[in-house]
């Protein structure tokens, strides 16, 4: 097995905020892909009504390197939750390659609810 080198040169970063929402009895199946090297800093999820049944929120990295590198890095039950804030374990943000994608999935089949997903991070300028 050989490692592939990925060179990340010093860059200037600009903040971004991605927002998506799902309506009544819908499904949130969104992804964040700025198309440049970027850092995932924070996830905020807000529900208008607490789920009465167990609904799972999952975040998966769809890696540029291929499916062997795809990673499920958050899976949490949203029952009895109004707000969820997730911070990656690295204080400077989780470094992502240019074609890495974070995919958000939340089923809302159990009842009427409005959900908003906000992703904060930095993307390379230029």
Question: How would you describe this structure to a colleague?
Answer:
The protein is mainly β and about 130 residues long. It has strands at about 15-20, 25-30, 40-45, 55-60, 70-75, 85, 95, 100-105, 115-125. The protein has one domain (about 30-125). It has no helices and 9 strands. The strands form 2 sheets. Strands 1, 3, 6, 7 and 9 form a 5-stranded antiparallel β-sheet that branches. Strands 2-8-4-5 form a 4-stranded antiparallel β-sheet, with no helix packed on it. Strand 4 and strand 5 form a beta hairpin. The N and C termini lie far apart (about 35 Å). About 20% of the residues are buried.
Overall 3D geometry?
A: elongated
Number of domains: 1
Q: What distance lies between the first and last C-alpha atoms, to the nearest angstrom?
A: 34 Å
Number of strands: 9
Helix content: under 10%
Strand content: over 45%
Question: What's the helix count?
Answer: 0
Q: Helices and strands: which structural class?
A: mainly beta
* CA-based gyration radius: 16 Å
Mean pLDDT: 81
Major sheet size, sense and barrel closure: 5 strands, antiparallel
Low-confidence parts, pLDDT < 50 over ≥5 residues? none
Order of helices and strands: EEEEEEEEE
